[in-house]
Amino acid sequence: MAKKLLQKLSDISKIHHRAAFTDVLKHTAPKTSEFLTLAGKRFSCRSFDARTVPDNMVESILEAARLAPSAVNKQPVHVWVADTQEVLEKLNKATKYLYGAPLVFIVGCNPSEAWVRACDGKNGAEIDAAIVGTHIMMEAADLGLGSVWVGSFDPSVLNAEFPELEGWDVVAMFPVGFPSHDALASERHTARKPIEEFASEL
């Protein structure tokens, strides 16, 4: 009897508590982190204005790339900076997706320097390079710059135009610059799977 009464009182208490604090989630839900705000702000920018990116911003992006994690910290990645008209014209021979950006970061990896998973020989070089590329994009966004991941290019043209790339597998190029006034995210940018579909518990 006492147990049932206590349960009933508990239920009544919970009802009153919910009635009195219907907005409790507003006060207790975790605040959106600075990183989540930045991740939501970043989009694939495909329109840049002609302004030159200041050297201190270039250095900041390179430092963010240098600090990117890699498997066993082997760092089998190299970044090249293209910011002169001559070099950008050569890059345009390999891809049509630079969108007039005044600055391009090229990220390459060397599989021979990377960690390899012992059980099946999986090489981590491209994964490490992808993490570096992500750091480049996020730091660019934090600086108010636009960027876009470009994977559509002709490696044979790159190698012919730039002997410096010999021995490296170029993974991606990242046009970077100040977004033009009409730069917008694509319609697909916000098309995200619901969390229930995206993640699950094992």
Question: Care to give the gist of this entry?
Answer:
With 202 residues, this protein is an alpha+beta fold.
Largest beta sheet: what is the strand line-up? 1-2-4-3
Number of strands: 4
Structure annotation, total helices:
8
Shape: globular
Radius of gyration: 24 Å
Measured as a percent range, the helix fraction is 40-55%
Tell me about this structure.
- The chain is an alpha+beta fold.
- It has a domain at 57-177: NADH Oxidase (3-Layer(aba) Sandwich).
- 41% of the residues lie in helices and 12% in strands.
- It contains 8 helices and 4 strands, in the order H-H-H-H-E-H-E-H-E-H-E-H.
- It has helices at 2-20, 24-28, 34-41, 55-66, 85-94, 125-142, 155-161, 195-198; strands spanning 77-82, 103-109, 146-147, 169-177.
- It has a 4-stranded antiparallel beta sheet with strand order 1-2-4-3, with helices on one face.
- Helix 4 (55-66) runs antiparallel to helix 6.
- It is globular, with a radius of gyration of 24 Å.
- 24% of the residues are buried.
- Residues 12-22 have low confidence and may be disordered.
Task: Draw up the topology in text.
Blueprint: H1 2-20, H2 24-28, H3 34-41, H4 55-66, E1 77-82, H5 85-94, E2 103-109, H6 125-142, E3 146-147, H7 155-161, E4 169-177, H8 195-198
Antiparallel strand pairs: 1-2, 2-4, 3-4
Which labels suit this protein?
NADH Oxidase; alpha+beta; 12% strand; 202 residues; globular
